[in-house]
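step 3/5: co-fold with flavin-adenine dinucleotide
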Amino acid sequence: MKKRVIIVGAGAAGMLAAGFAAKQHEVFLVERNEKPGRKLMITGKGRCNVTNNCMPDEFLRHVPVNSRFLYGALSRFAPVDTMTLMEKLGVPLKTERGRRVFPISDKAADVVDALKKFSAPAQFCVGRVKKLLFQDGAVKGVVLEDGREISADAVILSTGGTSYPTTGSTGDGYDLARQAGHTIVSPKASLVPIVTTEEWPSKVMGLSLRNVKLTVHKKKREVFSELGEMLFTHFGVSGPLVLSASSYLRDPKGSVLSIDLKPALSFQKLDARLQREFAAGSTQALSNIMRSLLPRKLIPICLFAAGVDGTKQGAQATKEDRKALIEVLKDLALHVHGFRPVEEAIITSGGVNVKEVDPKTMESKRVHGLYFAGEILDVDAHTGGYNLQIAFATGFAASHAI
Ligand SMILES: Cc1cc2nc3c(=O)[nH]c(=O)nc-3n(C[C@H](O)[C@H](O)[C@H](O)COP(=O)(O)OP(=O)(O)OC[C@H]3O[C@@H](n4cnc5c(N)ncnc54)[C@H](O)[C@@H]3O)c2cc1C
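step 4/5: write tokens
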């Protein structure tokens, strides 16, 4: 039977759901912005890491919270389905390090255009949904900010989280879900830059480190350790490694970050290297010699942390100086003061309590005909294309159920 369906929010989840639902139903895709997919445009630094090329079981290892809730949706719309759909819509893809999938063009705009094309059979309406309408325990439509009412047999809320609010994702969906009697797990920042107690990162602001190992300890227990890239900022640290590490820290205060600047070299190998460098530059200052080992900006920071005088000549450096320097090169420590605000987070953890949502259909257990898809739900994952895949899989589940 043909139904009238309203989808609130034309992001990743909403556009995909609209395309599938419009194959059978009359669909209105309501978006507060003039154009759909504003957040999608900035994903993957403008390249859009559209999914992760892995099997659902492996995928779920990258979903720290409520992974079981996603099992059914991911099995029915897996990463391979996203990839097939994108290719069908004229977006050839490539798989990079960590099975991250990007358009060959490296343009997020191509993904947005493809989803616009896919959702084109739905009617696109510009407007901000303020209220849900109910009748006899079922949803009956929506009211827009300008007073317009649209009636419907089913409504999908795909309004996203609260991060990067300038894209339109301001957390409106939480209020709409509350109107239907849902509880909201308090929204928090995840995949977010970290503010450090130390102020020295501001002195090396903009410096990006590649091929370093970042280890995070919470109360002396190791909670994260990976190789990759990170960035110093005016408040502390950011970049892919740091964003990933943040998702392992529910309560960040008191955690300690340890940067191994030379992960490929053991203590002994590093000592041999320093001995060689110091001998070759026997009449040069240590601060000059260290240029072959470290980015220039980081040299005074490391010498200071090691308590070594940088004006000393190579020939004067002692065994103790080398030991102190190696300890810093292998474990440059930073103490976590906290996270940057949720507005600066890549994703919002928290959202509609998944206990109140049917995992097969994404339908509300409180109100008949009301569905949820995407980041509005209390599910979130690591970086690597997992979050967009969650949006697509839950959008598919909701539209398919309708
Ligand atoms: C900088 C950045 C980079 C990212 N990169 C990646 C990446 O490369 N790969 C990855 O997997 N994930 C990435 N993410 C995460 C990913 O973008 C989100 O998880 C995903 O966009 C969530 O999709 P969604 O459809 O649930 O919500 P959104 O994409 O946020 O869409 C929600 C839409 O709802 C609209 N809306 C909100 N309220 C209303 C209302 N009341 N009425 C009408 N419309 C409304 C909004 O305007 C918005 O268009 C990134 C996020 C950020 C911020």
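step 5/5: annotate
The chain has a mean pLDDT of 96.
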